[in-house]
Hints:
The protein is built from three helices and four strands. The strands form two sheets. The chain has a two-stranded antiparallel ribbon. A two-stranded antiparallel ribbon has the order 3-4. It folds into two domains: 9-73, no CATH class; 83-118, no CATH class. 27% of the residues lie in helices and 14% in strands. The radius of gyration is 24 Å and the shape is globular. The chain has helices at 18-27, 41-45, 49-65; strands at residues 89-90, 96-97, 101-106, 112-117.
Amino acid sequence: MTTAVTVDANVTDEPFSFQELLGALASVNKASSPGPESIRYAELSHMGDKAKMHLLAIVNASWKRGGLEPSWKRARIIHAGKTQLRKRGRSSNGSVEQGIQMKKKGDDQGRPQLRMSG
Length: 118
């Protein structure tokens, strides 16, 4: 059985409301990773109403323009598998890995220092 839903075409042209912004901020995972600007959802949720209104204006301007800010489309992906730390090489499944290499090197006075290189 299929149910038909009638939607006013103009409703998608309307700007988002403050209540919709609050609902969106309340429904996201607060522990998720931040984007390139290093702003976490928890920080957005704890902003005052005046700051949230500025955020809403940015969101609505992007919605009206029909595009997102370019930086909102970028993501940094960091592989955090359960492999042992090793030098560059092939894993047991044949894929090339670049793990973190940890080694001790002496400083100018011969004291060991921990250095990490990728």
